[in-house]
Write a sequence for this structure.
């Protein structure tokens, strides 16, 4: 399914690798984009860097770009707005379309769809800024238990996310998250291993890659442990075969329900006491840095980093037929 031997790099035309942008995840995107650009160029693709924070998107049309590899993360790149602009320009792009991108970027909307379809995801509360009085914040642990995970629902790369271990931690966690969003997501803490599972492809042909178990120092898979530290461990084959298959099937269902295409990566928690997986979120423009998980998983099935980039680029398309 992922054989790239028949892909002619020259036939892909002039390619823009979109990276940088203006979201909080700009530093990560710069790393992802640099890797993708170098990989595509090494295979003979006519690929060029393009930073939407520095140049108008109309330049893609004016300069004759034929397709775009989206290596942007976060708002303005992963939330459907860029995808909509590319649809208007008629330039095929990698990854999910407008609606799936918009839904997946919003952790609240994603969770509501999964809950409606009976998929397991942690119990949660959603509160807007004006509802977050000190009195209301103090009651949240009574409803969800402790610890509580506090998240801005429209950010990635762990920006603004924290774990409140006790009542006294709640206000600080809320203030941190409010620096990124006006609506916050509070989730029960699922105690157990953190997992991630990538998906390549579309619809019923989509395939889940091997599951990765993440072991970060202190159990805190934050920005430092994701992108800077070399101490985080990424384990393949750590789950029993039947459990691995269960996680992959769950992730495929979650991916298809959101209407994702091309590629994506789901993050999950595995509850220690009963080995039940819980979906956290779906990433539709996953990282492609040296620490990123989709390339690590693809390598397990014989698809190295440059070939993964080439395969993804060849899948670029528009929502409209």
């Amino acid at each position: 399914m992922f054989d790239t031997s028949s892909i002619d790099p020259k036939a892909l035309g002039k390619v823009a690798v979109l990276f940088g942008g203006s979201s909080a995840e700009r530093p990560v995107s710069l790393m992802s984009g640099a890797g993708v650009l170098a990989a595509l160029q090494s295979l003979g693709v006519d690929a060029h860097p393009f930073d939407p924070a520095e140049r108008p998107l109309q330049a893609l049309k004016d300069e004759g770009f034929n397709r775009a590899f989206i290596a942007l993360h976060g708002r303005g790149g992963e939330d459907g707005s860029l995808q909509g602009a590319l649809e208007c320009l008629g330039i095929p792009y990698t990854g999910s379309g407008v609606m799936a991108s918009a839904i997946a970027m919003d952790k609240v909307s994603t969770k509501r769809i999964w809950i409606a379809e009976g998929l397991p995801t942690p119990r949660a509360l959603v509160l807007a800024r004006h509802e977050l009085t000190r009195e209301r914040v103090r009651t949240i642990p009574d409803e969800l238990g402790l610890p509580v995970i506090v998240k801005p629902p429209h950010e990635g790369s762990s920006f603004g996310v924290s774990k409140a271990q006790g009542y006294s931690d709640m206000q600080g966690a809320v203030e941190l998250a409010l620096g990124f969003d006006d609506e916050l997501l509070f989730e029960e803490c699922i105690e157990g291993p953190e997992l991630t599972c990538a998906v390549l492809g579309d619809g019923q042909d989509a395939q889940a890659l091997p599951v990765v178990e993440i072991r970060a120092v202190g159990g805190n898979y934050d920005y430092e442990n994701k992108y800077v530290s070399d101490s985080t461990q990424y384990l393949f084959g750590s789950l029993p075969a039947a459990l691995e298959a269960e996680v992959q099937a769950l992730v495929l269902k979650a991916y298809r329900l959101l209407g994702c295409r091309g590629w994506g990566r789901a993050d999950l928690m595995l509850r220690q006491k009963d080995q039940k997986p819980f979906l956290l979120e779906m990433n539709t423009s996953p990282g492609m840095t040296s620490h990123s998980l989709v390339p690590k998983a693809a390598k397990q099935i014989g698809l190295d980093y440059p070939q993964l980039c080439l395969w993804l680029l060849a899948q670029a398309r528009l929502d409209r037929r």
User: Anything to note?
Assistant: The chain has three domains: 9-95, 104-120+191-309, 124-188. The first strand starts at residue 14 and ends at 18. The mean pLDDT is 94.
